[in-house]
Specification:
nine-stranded mixed sheet, 9 strands, 35% helix
């Protein structure tokens, strides 16, 4: 583990270089601890597991030079008394990002052409085993977490939104909520949307957040998200209570857009914790 200052000197992250796995390629893992973690040693925290971890904290590392500002977002929510804080765990992506983030079971059942069109099939079941069986147990044993399902979340954007939803449906006993920003529905279309309708956990113990913009690639998502929203209603999820869906006029498909609205999914998932 390496204690690292962000490039602007504003905060500290704890980096685990080339965190090993028997399931997937090794990758860096960055962990950010909320203000007060080191002063109040009796407090335990919820955890948000995030994909594309190099884009979360430091503009020098982030795609196109803009990070999500996750440290700032949690600190703002703490200042607004919406949460007592959360630990953010960012697993970096790898050259196999597409295949680790593409939900595997719907490809096998509904989207066989995806596997035929690419060099190798999805590896997302293995990636989720890395999160569930290796990374989460390590974080829970090393940091003061609330390890239960109600305090454990997963979040990402684009393909990271898809794998977050897939994580929740595959491990509903581990994850209490998922934040799916600019979910990349178009890679599987209606068959992918309808697959998730059939595997949603029962409403009442999970929270799901979805959103999309109307600019760039995001403008293609609206019909699929509306279809998913209808599935959520049919499944009995209560809008704005255990499910939220938002449209952002003019928002593009990039880190700047997700940074601008990340407080909303975080507050939806974490308020009261």
């Amino acid at each position: 583990m390496i204690k690292m200052f962000l490039s602007d000197g504003s905060d500290v992250i704890y980096r685990y270089p080339d965190f090993g796995s028997k399931f997937v390629l090794p990758r860096h893992v960055d962990i950010w601890l909320p203000p007060g973690y080191h002063t109040d040693t009796t407090r335990h925290y919820p955890v948000v597991y995030m994909h594309d971890g190099q884009n979360l904290f430091d503009s020098v590392l982030a795609y196109a030079g803009v990070d999500w500002g996750m440290d700032e977002a949690i600190t703002r929510l703490m200042g607004q008394k919406l949460t007592t804080g959360a630990i953010i765990v960012g697993a970096w992506n790898t050259p196999r990002r597409l295949f680790e983030y593409m939900p595997q079971k719907p490809v096998a059942k509904l989207l066989q052409n995806f596997a035929l069109e690419h060099e190798f099939p999805p590896e997302s079941d293995a990636y989720l085993r890395f999160l569930a069986e290796e990374l989460k147990p390590y974080v829970d044993s090393t940091y003061r977490t609330h390890p239960d399902q109600a305090h454990t979340f997963v979040m990402g954007s684009s393909m990271g939104g898809l794998i977050s939803l897939y994580a929740l449906t595959e491990y509903p006993h581990l994850f209490g909520g998922a934040g799916c920003l600019s979910t990349h529905w178009v890679i599987g279309g209606n068959p992918l949307v309808d697959y998730f309708a059939g595997v949603l956990p029962s409403p009442g113990k999970h929270k799901l957040y979805f959103d999309y913009g109307t600019g760039e690639l995001d403008h293609t998502y609206e019909p699929f998200q509306k279809r998913m929203d209808q599935h959520m209603k049919t499944a009995g999820y209560r809008e704005d209570q255990d499910w939220m869906s938002r449209r952002f006029e003019g928002a593009n498909h990039n880190e700047s857009a997700w940074r601008a609205r990340v407080d909303l999914p975080l507050s939806f998932l974490l308020t009261g914790l």
